[in-house]
Specification:
This protein is an all-alpha fold. About 75% of the residues lie in helices and about 0% in strands.
């Protein structure tokens, strides 16, 4: 397996069926947990940026000369997007010295919202999905991750500030 395929498929996770994107998002959860435990939010943020750069490169290599510019086995975009969605719980846990596992509802919300926005492709996610090239492959998942992070923040606000949980 070439290094670009190894990166793009996240060590072969992208070959799992059905729903390789969901498997890629699931693979991101323990990775994000480990990164947060090792270096807090800053390491997760750095890993997100690295995964974006590596994902753009891998997507360019994997799709060069092919008609399918967004192959289903390419799931590094899901990892980068899921990492971005998890910023909404990693940052507050890191900033307020909270055990990130105590924020378990946020993990579930980040996963569900990211998958929802990635599959549904509302507004800017759909626009980014229609863009050509490796940047377009990565961009829709990053926007879905940002929207999921905002959703997690809104749900946390509703839960803690409005409902008092």
């Amino acid at each position: 397996m070439r290094i670009a395929t190894l990166i793009g498929t996240v060590c072969g996770v992208g070959y799992l069926r059905p729903a390789p994107g969901t498997w890629g998002s699931l693979a991101a959860l323990p990775l994000a947990y480990g990164l947060h435990q090792l270096g807090g939010f800053l390491l997760l943020a750095a890993a997100t940026l690295i995964s974006v750069g590596a994902g753009v490169w891998a997507a360019e290599v994997m799709t060069r000369g092919k008609e399918d510019l967004d192959p289903s086995e390419f799931v590094m975009d899901e990892v980068a997007g899921q990492f971005t969605a998890l910023w909404a719980i990693s940052y507050p846990a890191w900033a307020h010295d909270i055990d990130i596992t105590a924020l378990w509802p946020g993990w579930i919300a980040a996963f569900v919202l990211f998958r929802l926005f990635d599959v549904w492709k509302p507004g800017p996610v759909g626009w980014a999905d229609r863009q050509k090239g490796a940047t377009g492959v990565m961009m829709d998942d990053l926007i879905a991750g940002i929207m999921a992070a905002i959703g997690v923040g809104l749900l946390a606000f509703l839960s803690h500030r409005v409902l008092g949980f």
